[in-house]
Amino acid sequence: MATNIVWHDGAIKKEHRYTMLKQKGATVWLTGLSGSGKSTVSVALEQMMFKKGYLVYRLDGDNIRFGLNSNLGFSAADRKENIRRISEVAKLMGDIGVISTSAFISPYIADRVVAREIHKKAGIPFVEVHVDVPLSVAEQRDPKGLYKKARKGEIKNFTGIDDPYEAPIRPEVKIDTSQLSVNECAKAILDYLVAEGIIQPREEEPVPLPAKKPVQAEAAEANGAPVVNGST
Ligand SMILES: Nc1ncnc2c1ncn2[C@@H]1O[C@H](COP(=O)(O)OS(=O)(=O)O)[C@@H](OP(=O)(O)O)[C@H]1O
Ligand SMILES: Nc1ncnc2c1ncn2[C@@H]1O[C@H](COP(=O)(O)OP(=O)(O)O)[C@@H](O)[C@H]1O
Predict the structure, then answer these.
(1) Has the ipTM of the complex gone over 0.95?
(2) 12 belongs to a structural domain
(3) pLDDT tens digits, residue range 134-167?
(4) Signal peptide location in the record (predicted)?
(5) Is residue 1 in some structural domain?
(6) Residue 3 domain-assigned?
């Protein structure tokens, strides 16, 4: 625990940055089982919003565990610390004026309550999205072959198999990815953000998207990571 520390205020407030960026910061928090579709929907939402000119940034479980949280595993205590750190990062991004999409299993209600509280204190909107599918669907998809390994006992404490997933009770948005297409899921979140006044509606598409493959390769290279499931 750090002691004898005092907050040092600056002259530039988040309102100044929001005016400069012509948008307010917010966090879209996607929670759900492995294979539920968090990353896929998050990628689609980021693309949808970026094309409309919003400054949006994706935080993703696997990716963050290559860097910032590479010292954390999957015990309850490590997952709690994982979510706390990500919440602080998302809060800082929101303070800058960025809309972040966080795709983490975040299996414990208590940890998500902490994430919400961190945002509330900072005055950053927090939108919890339950990316919902039956375990059987997620397991059948098994995009990384992890369920198969977990069933064979090669991965311990795997969420949904031998570790809990506590579903949100009152999420702001709930999407069933076994019923809706990827784009319908992303659109449902975007519509909620607009309907609640969290973001201002934008029709224009001013920012051309760069070529897909080189950008992903560059990002992976920069983070020392292989590209997994990068099709969008
Ligand atoms: N034991 C265990 N349980 C769950 N998931 C596991 C595990 N071991 C590795 N993985 C891989 O890690 C990804 C989940 O990381 P998260 O940071 O989102 O997890 S958590 O929020 O801290 O619970 C998860 O990614 P997703 O499949 O995208 O959810 C897996 O690729
Ligand atoms: N409507 C949908 N939304 C999201 N993913 C879907 C949908 N329908 C099928 N899928 C597939 O389900 C898998 C979800 O994997 P992923 O996005 O990595 O999940 P998670 O990040 O929750 O582990 C992908 O293979 C994706 O193509």
Answers:
(1) yes
(2) no
(3) 999 999 999 999 999 999 999 999 999 999 999 9
(4) none
(5) no
(6) no
Residue 11 domain flag: no
All residue ranges of the chain with pLDDT < 50 are: 231-232
What is this structure's pTM?
Answer: 0.92
Question: Domain of 147?
Answer: 21-223
Give the CATH number of the domain where residue 84 resides: 3.40.50.300
Distance CA 170, CA 141 (A): 26
Show the tokens assigned to 69.
């949280």
Main-chain dihedrals φ then ψ at residue 53, nearest 5 degrees: 95, 10
**Ligand 1 centroid to 125 CA: how many Å?**
25
Q: How many domains does the chain have?
A: 1
Query: Which residue out of 28, 33, 34, 40 has the highest number of ligand 2 atoms within 8 Å of its CB and is therefore the one to mutate?
Result: 40
Q: Whose CA is nearest to atom 12 of ligand 2?
A: 37
Q: Is the CB of 43 under 6 A from ligand 2?
A: no
